[in-house]
Amino acid sequence: MTTLENISIKGTSPLLSVVVPVYKEEKNISPFLKRLIPLMEKLTQEYEVIFSMDPATDQTEEVIVTHLKKNPKIKLLKFSRRFGQPMATLAGLQYSSGDAVVVIDVDLQDPPELIEVMVKKWREGYDVVMAQRSSRGGETWIKRLVSFLGYRVISRIADVKIPSNTGDFRLMSRRVVRELVCLKEVHGFLRGLVAVVGFRQICIPFDRDPRFSGKGNYNRFLGSLRIGLNGIFGFSTFPLTFSTQFGFLVAGVSFFMSLTYLCLKIWGVPFPMGNPTIVIIVLFLGGVQLISVGILGEYIGRIYEEVKQRPKFIIEKTWGTFKNPIGSVKES
Q: What is the pLDDT of residue 19?
C-alpha cells in the first residue's frame, strides 16, 4: 500500500494537490490561504494549490496572482470564458500532479483542517475520502429542502451509489483522478463520476459552516437544481421508465373511465358530464404528455451535448508550472 512517507521519498511530483474552483471570490482568497497553507506545510513540503478561475469582473485574479508570486506552489488556471464550477473542477483535476488530490471550495464552508483527516484515511488505503455534511450552516430552508429531496431521489434511482449530503469536497488518489479525466461525460457531476470510477471509498462527517464572505456565485438555487437534475438524468434511466409506466397507467384509467361512462349510459344512470369534466381530463392528459416529452428532451439534450464533443473547457492563461494532459510541462 502506498503511504505518505513512501511518496515523500520519491520526490518526483507534489504529494498533495488542492483544486479550488473560483468565480468572484476576491474577499475569500486570502482568508482561505491563511488557513490552508500552514496546514499543507504541516502535512508535506511537496504540495500545490491550483485555483481554477472563470473570468470575473472583480479582483479575484489579481489577489491570486499576488499570492502566487510569494508562493510558487500556488498556481492558477484562467478560462477563456465562464464554463461553470463542474468544468473548473475537472480542469483542476486534469492539470493536477499530486499523488492525492483534494477538491475544496474557497468560501471556507468546507473547513481546510479536514484535509488532515482525509490524508490519514488515504494513508489507510482509501482511494476516495468524501466529506459528508452533518449540518448545513448558512443555507436557506429552500436549498436544504431541494438538497434533501434531490439526494433522496438520486439514492433511490441512480445506477451507482452516490452518498447523500456529500458535495465536491473530497480527497481522491491519483488513480481515481486518472480515470476521472478519461471519462467523456460533459455534465461534470463529480459526485456521480467518482461513484462510476469506484475503488475503495469512505465518508467522514463534518459540520458545514456559513460562507466566510459574500454570496455564493456557484450553486445558487437554480444551479443546485440543475446539478441535481444532472445527477438524476446522468446516472439513471428511471425517469424514462417511470414516464412510460405512468403513461400506461393513465391510458388504463382513461379506458376504464370510458367503459364506466358507456355502461352508465346504456343503463340510463345519470352522471355528470360536460365541458368542465372534459377540460379537466384534457388538461390532465396534456400535462402528462408535456412532462413525458420534457423527460425525453432532457435525455436527448444530453445526447446532443455528448455527440458534439466540444472541449469541456478552454484555458486562456496559466500561472505556474503544470504537467499538462499529454505529459509535457507548460509554464507561463
A: 92
Residues β-bridged to residue 103: 19, 170
The domain segmentation of the chain, as residue ranges, is 4-219+310-331, 238-308
Cell of 130: 468524501
Strands 166-173 and 315-319 turn out to be unpaired
298-315 residue pLDDT tens? 777 777 777 777 777 788
Quickly name the fold that domain 4-219+310-331 has: Spore Coat Polysaccharide Biosynthesis Protein SpsA; Chain A (3.90.550)
CB contact set of 320 (below 8 Å; sequence gap of 6+) = 48, 50, 68, 72, 74, 75, 76, 331, 332
- How far apart CA 329 and CA 63 sit, in angstroms, is 25
- Under DSSP, the state recorded for 314 is -
Task: Provide the whole-model pTM.
Answer: 0.68
Q: Tell me how far apart the alpha carbons of residues 144 and 142 are, in angstroms, rounded to a whole number.
A: 5
Rounded to 5, what percent of the chain is helix, strand, coil? 50, 20, 30
Whole-number percent of the chain with pLDDT over 90? 5
The Cα 79–Cα 161 span in angstroms is: 32
Helices 141-157 and 221-234: crossing angle in degrees, nearest 10, is: 0
